[in-house]
Amino acid sequence: MNTLRIVGLSGSLREKSYNTSLLRAAKHYGVQHGLEIEIADIGLLPLFNQDDEQSVPAHVGALKEKIEKADGVLFVTPEYNYSIPGVLKNAIDWATRPYGKNSLNGKPAGIMSVSMGSLGGARAQYHLRQILVGPNMYVMNHPEVMVAAAHEKFSEAGELIDESTQKKVKEFLVAFAEWVRKFEK
Ligand SMILES: Cc1cc2nc3c(=O)[nH]c(=O)nc-3n(C[C@H](O)[C@H](O)[C@H](O)COP(=O)(O)O)c2cc1C
Predict the structure, then answer these.
(1) Which of 89, 109, 119, 173 has the most Cβ atoms closer than 10 angstroms to its Cβ?
(2) Measured in angstroms, how far is the CA atom of residue 126 from the centroid of ligand 1?
(3) In the predicted model, what is the mean pLDDT of residues 116-138?
């Protein structure tokens, strides 16, 4: 079977981000499930300004091109005030513009979330699902990965050390690969 190309977006710019750590774990495990996950750095994007959307800044153009060439997008996001971080919304807004050039249009997507709280970013995850209706993404429903109490699941070095979470992420990736294949042209 051919390898599926996935763009991975983390909603946290923090150097020791648990979400980026989970995305790195997914990238690592993804290989054995036919997924080649490229992590895109959304921290390089300027704040969205509609004045610039017709001739987009270089980092925006590069992100849009990566997404357009990819078979799917994997979002891994923290929860900020019951929603997704502004940096992730900023990336989504850039990716959808200008009108008629929505790079996310019709792409399959997966969402995982990590939080230090007890709900694992569930509220942010559901908010992201709502947001992705606008760009016309097809988000996989199940299985859901919401990693709670993140500080107990990762090592100092950012390795995912919790076995039950490792298992859930692997199950997620198997299902995600199947989901993305359904949209192959
Ligand atoms: C501005 C801000 C708002 C936050 N709001 C929430 C929240 O609503 N729910 C929650 O579970 N955690 C919240 N947190 C805590 C995050 O879960 C925690 O900082 C987490 O480690 C962020 O993910 P990261 O490690 O990938 O950066 C918030 C953190 C910040 C900085």
Answers:
(1) 173
(2) 15
(3) 98
Q: Whole-model pTM?
A: 0.98
State in Å: Cα 79 to ligand 1 middle: 5
Encoded tokens for 19: 């979400």
Task: Say how many Å lie between the CA of residue 84 and the centre of ligand 1.
Answer: 9
CB of 154 closer than 6 angstroms to any ligand 1 atom: no
Between CA 160 and CA 134 the distance in angstroms is 33
pLDDT digits (tens, 9 = 90+) for 32-76: 999 999 999 999 999 999 999 999 999 999 999 999 999 999 999
Own/partner long-range contacts of 148-156 (Cβ < 8 Å, ≥24 apart): 148/115, 148/117, 148/118, 148/119, 148/120, 149/116, 149/117, 149/118, 150/18, 150/114, 150/115, 150/116, 151/18, 151/116, 153/18, 153/114, 154/18, 154/21
Structural domains of the chain, ranges and CATH numbers in brackets: 4-181 (3.40.50.360)
Cα angle 66, 69, 75 (rounded to 5 degrees) comes to 55
